[in-house]
Amino acid sequence: MDYREERDSVISEWWKFVDEFTIHQAALLIVGVEPNSETGTYCKDWKPHEQPDGYSIILTAICSALIRGDISGRNIQKTVYNPEFECEYDVEGSTDIDKSTVERDSVADWLSSKGHRVGFFFPEKPDDTGLPDYLNPNHPRYSDKLAAAVMVWQAMDDETLRGKKGLVPAMISWLESRYKEFRLVHKQSGRGKGGVITHSIGDRNDGAIKVVAQVANWNVDGGAMPTPEAGNLPTPQG
User: Which own/partner pairs from 129-132 qualify as long-range (CB within 8 Å, at least 24 positions apart)?
Assistant: First the structure.
């Protein structure tokens, strides 16, 4: 059987409504195979060379990332039946790929941290057409921080956003409300003293937000900002 058959590679549009996947489903979607196809249903029991290209590798990577906390979700260990004691027990350090689950946004963040931004978890947006390259998420040289700096700079044309906060605080506030849009999130989990988790993948990265605000800040000398004339305002994009 050839898993590259056309019907296997056509991903159902209904998956866009799912926010939590089994590890098996996530791995298949990443490598471009419809989980409900014949291949998707049975390939986990095939020999490695018979499985879809990359499936076994991605499967192992997701399991490891879930256990480490680099991907958010629920890790459920495999159970094995012991006939001697007539009971089941969990296999320490294992992962049941059909019962364990991973969250959509977290998988996308994890893939992005590895430099992979194509496929199911990165759908093209209808409004991408006409965007400048530096604001187009599908451009190969797209930078989250660059796009965020440009957009927050343009957003500050609105005096009501600045208010009496001051420029940088206003930018930080704007970015904090849109940090997921620009993926200003932690790409790796962090631990403090005693191994306590300080942040997980996908959590808001306040350090990155401050850096973006500093880059976009044109009022580096401080002081009151002159009110721009309407005719000189740049035209916001996006």
Answer: 131/237, 131/238, 132/237
Radius of gyration of the chain (CA): 23
Which one, of 72, 30, 42, 87, lies nearest residue 197 by Cα? 72
Model pLDDT for residues 85-119, shown as the tens digit of each residue: 777 777 788 899 999 999 999 999 999 888 888 89
The residue among 177, 199, 181 whose CA lies nearest residue 190 is: 199
Rounded CA-CA distance 151/144 in Å is: 11
* Length of the chain, in residues: 238
Total Cβ atoms within 10 A of residue 165: 12
What are the tokens at 152? 């927050």
Check: CB of residue 217 under 8 Å from CB of residue 168: yes
Only one residue has tokens 């095939």, namely 46
pLDDT tens digit string along 21-79? Answer: 999 999 999 999 999 999 999 999 999 889 999 999 999 999 999 999 999 999 999 88
Q: What is the pLDDT of residue 127?
A: 54
Two tokens at 105? 């946004």
Is 93:76 a contact under the CB 8 Å cutoff? no
Q: What is the end-to-end Cα distance of the chain in Å, rounded? A: 46
| Percent of the chain's residues with pLDDT above 90 | 49
Q: How far apart are CA 209 and CA 173, in angstroms?
A: 9
